[in-house]
Amino acid sequence: MKVISTKLPGVLVFEPKSYGDHRGFFMESYNRHTLEQLGIHHDFIQDNHSLSVQAGILRGLHYQLAPKAQTKLVRVLSGAVYDVVVDIRQGSPTYGEWAGVILSAENKRQILVPQGFAHGICTLVPNTQLMYKVDQYYSPEHDRGIGWNDPQLGIEWPVSDPILSDKDRGQPPLAQAEINYLYERKEQT
After folding, report:
1. Is 189 a member of any domain?
2. Out of 42, 62, 63, 119, which one is annotated catalytic?
3. pLDDT tens digit sequence for 124-179
4. Which of 53, 63, 150, 182 is most buried by its number of CB atoms within 10 A?
5. Does the keyword Isomerase apply (predicted)?
């Protein structure tokens, strides 16, 4: 598996090895042992699957407050998305910064979204199916979000007028969002 770092520490892109021939392909989409060898230890407990029937559907930017914060491992089964991750850990050197990557059925890339980061996607083609693992169950009372178009974030989405849910249309900017993540600096020994 190829691991690609982003400008946000802990946010990683994975390119699983894929073996293909005239019949199709085979790949391991998840192998706990492989991730542990990379120093990534998460106990994923649930898989979520979504379908977006149109291009330009934007979902996000979502997160759950601690102690129900979720780490996500996200991949696309069909279609393509522009996937965005925002650092919302107060005190982090990259607080308020974002990273974006295209995930598609074709490139088979996956992104690891650690706790303390908001996450959103914008579909690039119709009938896009997304699947992601989480290490905490969904908790409605801890569910929060940030406005997709917060000018302080300056996210360069591939659409200017996305298709949004009522929930996502009403999310606050980062400066007004309820956040309880603190950056934990790892001391070097």
Report:
1. no
2. 62
3. 999 999 999 999 999 999 999 999 999 999 999 999 999 999 999 999 999 999 99
4. 63
5. yes
Q: What is the DSSP letter of 155?
A: -
Domain span at residue 135 reads 2-19+26-176
Residue 75 burial (10 A CB sphere; 0-12, 13-18, 19+): buried
> Which among 63, 82, 132, 181 is annotated as catalytic?
132
Tell me the backbone φ, ψ of residue 32, rounded to 5 degrees. -55, -40
Q: What domain count does the chain have?
A: 1
- Tell me the C-alpha distance between 58 and 47, whole Å: 20
| Helix residue ranges, H only, 118-185 | 166-169
Verify whether residue 132 is a known catalytic residue: yes
Model confidence, pTM: 0.93
DSSP helix/strand/coil, 87: strand
CA distance 56 to 73: 22
